[in-house]
Specification:
The longest helix has 19 residues. It is globular and about 40 Å long. Helices cover 64% and strands 0% of the residues. It has four helices and no strands.
Length: 87
Amino acid sequence: MNTIELESWLRSLISKISGNSAAGIGVDDDLQQTLGLDSLGRLEVLAEIEDRFDFYFEDNETMNASTLSKILEVIDLKLREVEGAEA
């Protein structure tokens, strides 16, 4: 999955959970303050990501995953870690 596909998939996921239009979700919109996701909604987003990519977020990563762009950064980092471990 390339970066554009990943961002599109993540927008759709956040849209489904938050009830906001995917097109209206900005990369720097705060999941809680701007999009109205409570802590359970944020955890649902992160759990879906973990299931999709078969890795787990560390506690500090979940605290920092507050916007689409930050989540994309964490996913990229985690996927690189997985690829490095497989090499």
